[in-house]
Amino acid sequence: MNSLITLSSVDIAIIVGYIGAVIVLGVWLSRRHKNFDDYFLAGRVLTAPILVCTLVSTYYGIDVLLGDSELAYEEGIVGFFGYSMPIYLFYLMAALLLAKRLKNQGFTSLPEILMRYYGPKAQMLGAIASFLYSLPALSLFGFGLVAHVVLGWEPMVGAAILGGAALVYTILGGLWAVAITDAIQFFMMCITLAVAVPLALGKVGGYEWLEANLDPGYFQFFGDLPIWLVLIYVMTGLSVLVEPAFYQRIFSAKSAKSVRNAMLFGIVLWGSYDWAVTAIAMAAKGAALQGILPMDVHPNEALLRVAVLSLPTGLVGLFIVGVLAAEMSTVDSYCLVAGSNLSYDIYKPRARKNVTDEQLIKMTRIGIVISWVLGYIVAFYFDRMLALWVFLSTLLTSTVLVPILLGIFCPDWRKPLAGLMSAVTGLVSAILFYGIVEWFGTFSEENGTTILTIITESGIRYDIWQEYAMLFTLPLSLTGFFVGLLLDRGSGKL
């Protein structure tokens, strides 16, 4: 398979040099950790500037970059107003309402919250959900796309090679390596967008040309999407309230104030990034109309293709490095969280003897490798990145959102049975919903998802998209919590 561009020797040197540099940095930073807290939480001393960089870059991997752009390419500014913008509200809530409470309670991981509030069974379910959500499937999917579009590699080969570099420095350096490389990658991401946005828009005649030639629906806040799908995209944003990688940053911060300020500043940067991505994706649509891109270009690839075609020789390597930096900053964080779920949240509480820090670090490293391998397998099951993102968010949110938030704000409701029934109901219903729709539904090429169609005896037709899962699973999780609360006649003390 051939790539769309020919890389110059300068471009190749930039790409190879960057990948080599982050691996070397990981090796060097591996000397900094002395115990598990150092390895997983960077000694709980991260300051606001580093937190800003690692928060923003962790959220903005290729998965978000290409997932956001997929929607913007197909539907227009709804990619920003209908999908990205509602998420900022949840980030704001997390910064103002959750950060201080979580930081002051001295937690180490998200499942540990469920352990303290509801006991070991709820904690186990939380660890499973957190582990599945943190599989680097989205990141590896993105690496595959970059390799396919830019380098001409098969996606699975590209994911293995490019994702392997992030795996190496994460295993070696832990959160110190993740945080420091994220800071570097943050600036690479900013440079990438600063270069790509004006060049991509200029390629198609500017924003004025887009307004004059694209369908008017492209400039409507919610486009032509079904209202239920818009609602799902909004609900998907709820995952940030229980995002394991964000929780890790909260726990690793030097103070509650520093993480709060970092998250508030991060919202401004996320918004700027999202709007830039939306603009480039719409430029890609314009390029398709002008024949610069083929009309049948895959929505996942549109942004990447137009950006690369807009850049002159020499800047292509910088752009690719920026894209790789965006994804490495995500895959490293998620692998580290998933690895700790296996070591700290599953292995340690059930070990027959005391577990040393050295053993925890070793088990975390094994968990990182396991999560990477499983993420690699899952990555290529879904056709579209946005569908994969919604699926993983549904699993996490359905399992832990209700018990964690109610446990934080309603201490008297911390009954073991309530937390357990909420987590069980949410996780099982999410898996069953996706399974039923996948088994009995039909894949729609037009919509890029599987749809279960139900026609009643009176002839009324209901199209249930796979993405609609959270409309059912969250109410069931909430119901499970209150049923458990009513049935639990004990004191609630664990």
Helix content: over 70%
**Per CATH, which architecture?**
Up-down Bundle
| CATH third-tier fold name | Sodium/glucose cotransporter
Q: Please describe the biggest sheet, giving its number of strands, its sense, and whether it closes into a barrel.
A: 3 strands, antiparallel
From the alpha carbons, calculate the radius of gyration and give it in angstroms. 22 Å
Euclidean distance between termini CA atoms: 59 Å
Q: State the shape.
A: globular
Please give the count of helices: 19
What is the total tally of β strands?
A: 3
SS class = mainly alpha
Q: Given this structure, which CATH class is correct?
A: Mainly Alpha
> What is the count of distinct domains?
1
Strand adjacency order, main sheet: 1-2-3
Structural account:
By secondary structure, this protein is mainly alpha-helical. A hairpin with a 4-residue loop joins strand 1 and strand 2. The longest helix has 49 residues. The mean pLDDT is 81. The protein has one domain: Sodium/glucose cotransporter (Up-down Bundle).
Q: Could you give the topology of this structure?
A:
Blueprint: H1 9-29, H2 36-41, H3 48-59, H4 62-75, H5 78-104, H6 110-118, H7 120-134, H8 137-151, H9 155-203, H10 206-213, H11 227-236, H12 244-252, H13 256-289, H14 302-310, H15 315-350, H16 357-379, H17 385-409, H18 416-440, E1 442-444, E2 449-455, E3 461-465, H19 469-487
